[in-house]
Design a protein that fits this description.
single chain; alpha/beta; TIM Barrel; eight-stranded parallel β-barrel; 43% helix
């Protein structure tokens, strides 16, 4: 089993317990379920930097990024830094996150929040809305096109935006649905963890122009972003690069300021 298959198998076990403990009908009674979502798509269209700053404590490839990270402090720092949106890892087993992290981020900031998790069931989409997310992630490498179509349709019905993550041309062409808002190219191959910005560059012109394009993973300097902007990318998801520092909010602020100053000279 590759890592995605392991995560999917574990996720299904987790969900069986969650559904027993908190039925979907109970989630729909929570206050955030009726809240109007904040648009990440609009924020990225208006932004000249397009940084989506990520909160995560660890990952399978980096088991100790920032294990003691405090959600409220870091997400507030990201908002102050000028991020366009915030991604919050809610997977516990492999990333050390939780839905409580998402809920606390929602209480802390007014930015759009992406629930970053491995969605394999409609229950998780209801859960995302109930806990304060504005955007959900659907990963083409672990879902069938029929599932992406079904899951994205439910998300739209609930007022959520949909970020579809692809890694190659086949995943892209099989999942072009009008219920998807944003297409992200993951520069990390989730099956072997190889990282290369070439994945984004190769797919850029193949993504239809009616989708916001974002590049994810492996972005560690502003030069890479300036290069990717020329390919049509409007959003850039950065996690480990900020989270591995002592003050992720400050790191994000410095990065965004550097990006703005370099953009003036190009």
């Amino acid at each position: 089993m590759n890592i995605l298959e392991k995560i999917a198998a574990h996720k299904k076990q987790e969900l069986a317990i969650s559904k027993e403990e908190i039925p979907a009908e109970s989630l729909e009674l929570l206050p955030h379920f009726k809240r109007k979502c904040i648009s990440l798509k609009e924020n990225l269209q208006k932004s000249d930097t397009g940084i989506i700053a990520e909160f995560k404590r660890r990952s399978p490839s980096h088991p100790e990024i920032n294990l003691d990270a405090e959600v409220a402090e870091i997400t507030a720092g990201y908002e102050k830094a000028g991020a366009s949106g915030i991604s919050v890892l809610t997977d516990e087993e492999f990333f050390g996150g939780s839905l409580d992290d998402l809920a606390l981020a929602r209480e802390t900031v007014k930015l759009p929040l992406l629930r970053k998790d491995f969605i394999v069931d409609e229950y998780q989409i209801i859960e995302a809305k109930a806990m304060g997310a504005d955007v959900i992630l659907l990963i083409a490498a672990m879902l069938k096109p029929s599932e992406i179509k079904k899951f994205s349709a439910l998300a739209k019905k609930l007022g959520l935006e949909v970020l579809l993550e692809v890694h190659n041309e086949e995943e892209l062409k099989n999942n072009i649905f009008d219920t998807v808002d944003i297409i992200g190219v993951n520069n990390r191959n989730l099956k072997n963890f190889e990282v290369d910005l070439k994945f984004s560059k190769d797919l850029a012109e193949k993504i239809p122009d009616n989708y916001i394009k974002i590049s994810e993973s492996g972005i560690s300097d502003t030069a890479a972003i300036l290069e990717l902007q020329k390919c049509g990318f409007q959003g850039f998801l950065i996690g480990g690069n900020f989270m591995k520092t002592e003050d992720p909010g400050k790191s994000a602020a410095e990065f965004i300021q550097e990006l703005k100053s370099k953009a003036l000279w190009t």
